[in-house]
What does this fold into?
Amino acid sequence: MPTYSPKASEIQRAWHVVDADGLVLGRLATEVASILRGKHKPTYAPHLDTGDHVIVVNADKVVLTAGKAERKTVYRHSGYPGGLKAERYADALARKPEEAVRRTIKGMLPKTRLGRQMASKLKVYAGPHHPHAAQKPQPLDVAHARRPSA
It folds into this structure.
């Protein structure tokens, strides 16, 4: 029996919305990356984009555990000699929380054209509102990504 590979016309894409209020950034990112790749579907194929669209709201309320916000560093490079810029994660989250969350999730996707296509299905917003109500997104529960109570 030949291996089943889904065709582009057979792929059904749903829309999910995740409220990131109080969620740990890394745990949220692994779940969202898995949904974007399509690993939750029985028709998953590593060489195809079978994933769903994900909307992340309240990105400004994500948390990092164990003081990582102060210790972790975000790097970017302009491409020119001496163009390396570094900033703490706390500053990146304060300055542009959408970009910090998007960058974290994108880092967990493949580093190919396929990964860039998957990342285009990710929408991140700092506040609780988003303009995708017409797509009727279903809430995605990632309760295990909450910060563990001590």
In short: Residues 12 and 78 are 38 Å apart (CA to CA). Strands lie at 15-19, 53-57, 73-77, 84-88, 122-124, 138-139.
